[in-house]
TrEMBL record:
Protein name: Uncharacterized protein
Highest rank taxon of the organism: Bacteria
TM segment ranges: 12-30
Keywords: Membrane, Transmembrane, Transmembrane helix
Amino acid sequence: MINKIKNGREGGFIKLIILIIVVLLLMRYFNLTITGVLSYFHLTWTDIMNWFNQALNWLKDLFISVK
């Protein structure tokens, strides 16, 4: 049973690596950049960082409420 769990985790990790490589190759083929994608959705790096900060605060509040 432990081998099945280990193989499942390794398989998921390999799928994640393959997905990242495919996305990077597609971005290269279509000449896309992360900044270009953010500009398309009218987002700035500060908006993204604020979103991450809000998510982090939400997680902190969640863990505090579970205590």
